[in-house]
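Hi everyone, sorry if this is the wrong subforum. Our group has a chain we'd like a structural model of before ordering constructs, and none of us has done structure prediction before. Sequence below.
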Amino acid sequence: MAQESALNYLSHGQIPFFRLPQAPGEVPPGTRAVLVGVPTDLGATYQPGARLAPWHVRRVSALVQGYHPGHRLDVFARVPAVDGGNVAFPPFDAAAMREAVEARAAAIAARGAVPFTVGGDHSITLPILRALSRQLGPLAVVHLDAHLDTSGPEIWGEPFHHGTPFRHAIAEGLVERGALFQVGIRGPWGSAADDAPSRGHGGRIVTADEVAERGAAAIGEEIRRALGGRRTYLSFDVDAVDPAFAPGTGTPVPGGLTSREAFAILRALSGTTLAGMDVVEVAPPLDAVDQTSNLAAHLLFEGLALLALANP
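Answer:
Right subforum, don't worry. Here is the predicted structure as tokens:
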């Protein structure tokens, strides 16, 4: 089977995520995970380029094999998965992008599958959370990022840029109160009130310094216990990781997680009921030797492994 999938990807000239079968239309029966791309950086406030991430993350994911030695399981044997293609929308219409992403996430969830989405910038997360919470109710959210992403339109005059998704998600009741965990936060804020939306919703903010002091596995285990079996959405902005390990991102902040710490946090979430996952803000034009795209592919694989652990 592994040899057949490798030959297929070579013969048809397209590289799907992890050499998986392609299903850009209807979700095939029995599918547990659908990987989709959202090629947009309309929400970027600094350096663009994230619209190119789905193609590049697909390309490098072809090198990722399916057995997870840490969890001792064959991820794709436990989780039937497909590459669902990219979400299509007019490339200069952010509102149309949000509508299309929400519709696609809703269609995937309606078939009992879990969406794994590659951005694109972080503005794609809000429509996914809207779709999933409409079907599943308010979700727990584990958000790894250098930034809180609870900004408003004050600076840029745009209410839905990539620094705003969790302000909207909290205000719209998409995130369960007391079930927001933001990890890797660091760097200067605009004001002392930047954390008010998260704190006011009972959120837990874990700085990059706290991860370094207490250990990534301990932080992940603490979050896993606090989740307590809740349906959880995992949102991973690659700028949570230090630019030494993830240079290909539009708003890098020094002093972040190492890639090993990022993996340790995700692996410690073993047993979490995953409702969906995104990896966002990979900007291949700013990358070095596919460093950030490779990291993104492996972060996706870690998320798929979490789903596999819950699907014996």
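For your construct planning: The beta strands are 33-38, 67-68, 73-74, 81-86, 114-119, 139-144, 175-185, 204-207, 231-237, 273-280. The first strand starts at residue 33 and ends at 38.
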